[in-house]
Write a structure and sequence with these properties.
40% of the residues lie in helices and 5% in strands. By secondary structure, it is mainly alpha-helical. The strands form two sheets. The chain has a three-stranded antiparallel sheet with strand order 1-2-3, with no helix packed on it. A hairpin with a 6-residue loop joins β2 and β3. α5 packs across α7 and α8 crosses α9. The structure holds zinc ion. Zinc ion (ZN) binds next to loops.
């Protein structure tokens, strides 16, 4: 998987279809198992097949190219039959194959953003949170508070994944470089905040602690604030 994303303003396709199809080796696994086993995908949860098959949940998905919507959905939710069909058609229909895979990748991400707002999806995210999968806040006074994945936008390819710290309530770029290739829309802008409302007591025991600069043990007068001095 290659990263071509350098900033929010230059957020070209998050998943490289070429490299992802190069890695496309399902063996005896389902597509979803294969997809979730990819390196950066350990922060994604498995979507219940029933949820993905409910048309209501798929309404208005903002796919780049919906041409292969049904094929991609079959790939995500079906098992080996659809994979075998794709594998057999790989050589003679390589272009189609690549487009189905690319659509399936984005489709999974966008369904995922909806699924993690449901009670079942949120519970799976809680398990990952409790295992520390999402990483810890780099801010010293947050005392290793585990963060939550978050997107600034709900539209795909508008910006990469960020992490929200429930303690300092700040957003951070992924510390682990492998998460820099994930589209923020696959988690969405609502998730961490709804999650906090639901699981506040599980999430943080650290009240926000503010760093107080001191000289020889004495608090600085507000007029000595670095920002004030520089803005005057
Ligand atoms: Zn923090």
């Amino acid at each position: 998987m290659k990263s071509s994303q350098s900033s929010d303003s230059d957020s070209s396709p998050v998943f490289s279809s070429t490299s992802i199809t190069d890695e496309f080796d399902l063996e005896e696994r389902s597509w979803m198992e294969w997809f979730l086993s990819l390196k950066a995908h350990d922060i994604l949860v498995e979507i219940d097949e029933e949820y993905a098959l409910d048309k209501f949940n798929l309404t208005g998905l903002m796919l780049d190219d919906p041409t292969y919507f049904q094929d991609a959905l079959a790939l995500i939710t079906d098992t080996l039959e659809e994979h075998e069909k794709l594998r057999q058609g790989f050589e003679r229909e390589k272009h189609r194959h690549n487009r189905v895979i690319t659509t399936a990748l984005q489709m999974y991400g966008l369904i995922h953003a909806r699924y993690i707002l449901t009670p079942a999806g949120m519970k799976k995210m809680l398990t990952k949170f409790q295992r520390g999968v999402f990483g810890k806040c780099p801010r010293t006074l947050c005392q290793n508070q585990v963060m939550l994945p978050c997107g600034l936008y709900d539209t795909p390819r508008s910006g990469g994944l960020k992490f929200f710290c429930p303690s300092c309530e700040e957003l951070y770029e992924p510390i682990n470089r492998r998460y820099q290739v994930i589209d923020g829309a696959y988690f969405g802008s609502t998730f961490p905040h709804l999650f906090l409302l639901t699981y506040r007591e599980h999430v943080t025991k650290n009240p926000k602690e503010v760093y107080i600069p001191k000289i020889f043990g004495f608090k600085l007068h507000p007029s000595a604030s670095f920002h004030l001095v520089n803005s005057s």
